[in-house]
């Protein structure tokens, strides 16, 4: 890849080509949990926090009415920092001269001005609309003239009891963070466990253990954990279909003359993916740039079976990625927890068995803050990566030409429809694996009341 193309794909500020593209999509900016006094006691008194998204410094606040406002961080008067502003119910006041703004950025008061002044009528602070979906707060940063419909992905149809959201910071560019999730081959190596844990000890909520739960179906008369399949059959045949929302990705691992392991995942253009965590749970994950060299991932866990134990899922992840800032305890500063003894005897990577996120974190952070793609040598297993980069470049060109990018639907352009992101991980008959795959999807749909309601 030419250096100029790499720059075009990775720079995300307001005046960059990729930044203009990403502002055509709703962006995750915080977890709803971040405004819980249980997660952050400071929120009981002052539900406001500073953040940086797409290279912009902002403040996110919850008003007394429960609504959220996302405002530019610096006061339009003389640039003082509104992260230290006075939270006044449904408005924010700058302590420097008392200027006050509502959640939409309208200037309500300039109290030091003469009583007859109408100055505030012409003042407006930059503000972005915010909505909540599945425990995540999303902002529209593309400007008020043309707001997109919110993507109706399958994970948003589940009831709150069957959803759980979490996040974490990676110190790297958004694109390398995104690309690890649409790479079906890396799981056979990066997440390889050299020994398999007994299936009955692997809880469905356990953080980082999705490759130790059982795949659907049986091989040689027994259930196999994903970890064993990934380890023993590490040359997947990868195919994909381009769909309006991204890519439908299939990885086939031939196990015998009669059987094949099938893994169905999705790439969600431009910043997300959806993969199976187990036979009854998926992870739908987005990667939002903080700036060019830092990225937050936001994951929504969705259960197609029993309600989720939110407290257990939260406590399992807080051990490794603690709130309120969700910065991983391991990173470059402590070699991502690397243990050569573990690498020799228990895992392929040597960076822990209980927090699978650190595996991906090492992979994308060790490339450098912005990966130098002029030095890489892509292989056949990178075909989805290649297709996604082409689609990104085409979409950037479309936006620069004044057209709309893939998946964009303006609000009011028609009734929104649910986007199916079915995932499957299981052992199928080789000759009829396509029929088996569709049968698994239909069976899960039939046993999931909220999917039935969505389809109806």
Describe the structure.
This protein has 456 residues and is of the alpha+beta class. It has two domains: 26-139, Rieske [2Fe-2S] iron-sulphur domain (Rieske Iron-sulfur Protein), CATH 2.102.10; 154-455, no CATH class. It is built from ten helices and 19 strands. The chain has helices spanning 3-10, 17-22, 174-180, 226-232, 310-318, 340-345, 357-365, 383-400, 433-446, 449-455, and strands at 27-31, 48-53, 56-62, 68-72, 86-88, 91-93, 100-102, 107-109, 127-128, 130-133, 136-139, 163-170, 237-243, 246-254, 259-268, 272-278, 281-291, 294-303, 424-429. Strands 12, 13, 14, 15, 16, 17, 18 and 19 form an eight-stranded antiparallel beta sheet that branches. Strand 16 and strand 17 (281-291) form a beta hairpin. The longest helix is centred in the C-terminal third of the chain and has 18 residues, at 383-400. The protein is globular and about 85 Å long. The model has no long low-confidence stretch (mean pLDDT 94).
